[in-house]
Design brief:
Layout: H1 2-8, H2 17-54, H3 81-97, H4 125-143, E1 155-162, H5 166-174, E2 182-187, E3 190-192, E4 203-210, E5 221-226, H6 243-254, E6 261-274, E7 279-292, H7 297-306, E8 317-322, H8 323-330, H9 351-362, E9 369-375, H10 388-394, E10 401-403, E11 407-412, H11 416-433, H12 457-464
Antiparallel strand pairs: 1-4, 2-4, 3-10, 5-7, 6-7, 8-11, 9-11
Helix pairs in contact: 6-7
Length: 495
């Protein structure tokens, strides 16, 4: 398996002397079989040429005349079998690699770069660290001309908890912070202890992004919105509702100012289900949380009583950056860190670097922030590889964690200077990153779930005993008339 992975990564295969001896014997046997097949093929072609000569060059008696076949030259070599096999393997790898090309147009890698065939990595830890530091220094230098004239330093404080106790622990931690100095609080989208399916007793991590000198004491209030709830009034074909839209209604109703808000945070869980051979991992977005110094209970109860609501644009600016498009190049493995050297060293090597870069280029200040977070867009069954380059690492042995980060979300009170900052960010994307990482900002896909009534119970019973279709499923007994959800926060599908 180790040599298979090395071969997929383009590295030379390392064999022991015993393996070398076995390979030599296998190669000799293969050469003998190929020679025998080539001789048999040449003999068959000679016989066919001799037969056609006796038939007058291929004329059909009593039928149309056909073009004589090309003459057979015994000295002409047959196509080498090894070359045919190699070409078939290369074609299969290229076809499989096309499955990971959906991000075309988001990042321009330049000529010669291949998403699925990155350069080999450095193995020595010290050499890796030195190389990564030099790449980071070059990126910082390239970013410097685009930075806001006035900007805050960003500090990231991470702490561990468990899935069961996380909300209580987050609330307790935030008691010791000044919300005006906090950019946001969020669940780090990494999953530890992969032997367990549920996160209840498993270590999870949260992080507080804040400016220096954020220490303070005070109360913390939390409000929650469940994606399965019917909060928004929507119909088929209308724009979808995202988490920050619903949280924005609470911000508007409670007149919540960003200097009193610790963060809007999507509640993420990474869970597993057992399969026949392994576990299947899925990322679930259950809803959104609002943490604040001011009480939210009265406004939250009023919104719940009035739901479903005519949810409109949120009362703040919302930006989305596609981190996963970057990760597919620089950190494609779900189980390890960024590649070193980086295939595209001008791109940030981590989502933390990308988050801080945005805040510093746009110049967003903590007192204007409703929240920053690294999260996911939606619940996804399964966490697929990001590129062929990640396949080798993802199937290798046991792993300690899973990275599930997909996108960065920024919500803040807009100002004229931030509009100028976003113009700098777009220039930085175009001229340095050669990417369009904000392509999802402001996008709302149309709701496309339709209701299709199930067939009658009797027809399902008859189908079950249909001799022409022995694989018909059993009739559905429970929840036969339960309607699917139109979309997050949108309730069941209507007629």
């Amino acid at each position: 398996m180790r040599n298979l992975i090395r071969a997929l990564r383009g590295k030379p295969v390392e064999l022991s002397p015993k393996q070398e001896e076995k390979m030599a014997k296998a190669q000799a046997k293969a050469d003998r079989i190929i020679a025998e097949r080539e001789a048999a093929g040449r003999k068959a072609m000679e016989d066919a040429a001799a037969f056609m000569a006796t038939q007058g060059g291929g004329a059909n008696v009593g039928g149309p005349t056909t073009t004589p076949p090309p003459s057979f030259d015994p000295a002409q070599p047959l196509p080498p079998m090894r070359e045919v096999f190699r070409q078939a393997l290369d074609h299969a790898k290229d076809s499989f690699g096309e499955m990971f090309d959906e991000r075309a147009g988001i990042i321009d890698p330049g000529p010669g770069a291949d998403l699925n065939k990155p350069p080999p990595e450095l193995e020595d830890p010290a050499e890796r660290e030195q190389w990564a530091a030099s790449e980071r220094e070059a990126r910082d230098e390239a970013r410097a001309p685009y930075l806001a004239a006035t900007r805050q330093a960003v500090e990231l404080t991470r702490f561990a908890t468990t899935g069961r106790a996380q909300l209580e622990d987050v609330t307790e931690r935030l008691r010791h912070y000044d919300p005006a100095r906090v950019f946001g609080v969020y669940r780090v989208p990494d999953r530890y202890d992969l032997s367990k399916n549920s996160e209840n007793k498993v270590r999870v991590e949260w992080e507080i992004a804040h400016a220096p000198g954020a220490a303070a004491e005070g109360e913390v209030h939390m409000a929650a919105f469940d994606r399965a709830g019917h909060w928004a009034a929507r119909r088929f074909g209308e724009p979808e509702v995202v988490d920050e839209d619903v949280a924005g209604e609470l911000v508007r109703r409670a007149n919540l100012q960003p200097e009193d808000c610790f963060g809007l945070s999507r509640l993420l869980h990474v869970r597993a289900t057992n399969t026949e051979y392994d576990k299947s991992w899925s990322a679930h977005i259950d809803g959104i949380l609002v943490f604040s110094r001011a009480s939210l209970a009265e406004a939250h109860v009023a919104l719940k009583a009035e739901a479903p609501l005519a949810v409109g644009p949120p009362p703040f600016y919302a930006e989305v950056l596609d981190w996963e498009a970057v990760a597919a190049w620089v950190a494609p493995s779900r189980h390890t860190g960024p590649r070193t050297p980086s295939p595209l060293p001008h791109l940030p090597s981590s989502w933390e670097e990308l988050m801080i870069a945005y805040l510093e280029v746009v110049g967003v200040r903590s007192e204007d922030c409703y929240g920053v977070q690294i999260t996911r867009a939606a619940t996804q069954s399964g966490l697929p590889d990001l590129s062929m380059a990640s396949f080798a690492r993802n199937i290798r042995g046991r792993h300690d964690l899973i990275h599930a980060a997909e996108l960065l979300k920024f919500t803040y009170r807009d100002r004229a200077e931030y509009q100028e900052g976003r113009a700098r960010w777009r220039a930085y994307q175009d001229e340095v990153l050669h990417a369009q990482l904000d392509h999802r900002s402001g996008q709302r896909a149309p709701l496309d779930t339709e209701y299709r009534p199930p067939p009658s119970f009797l027809s399902e019973v008859f189908d079950m005993f249909n001799p022409l279709d022995p694989w018909s499923p059993l009739p559905q007994i429970f929840n036969r008339n339960e309607r699917p959800q139109l979309g997050a926060y949108c309730g069941p599908v209507e007629d």
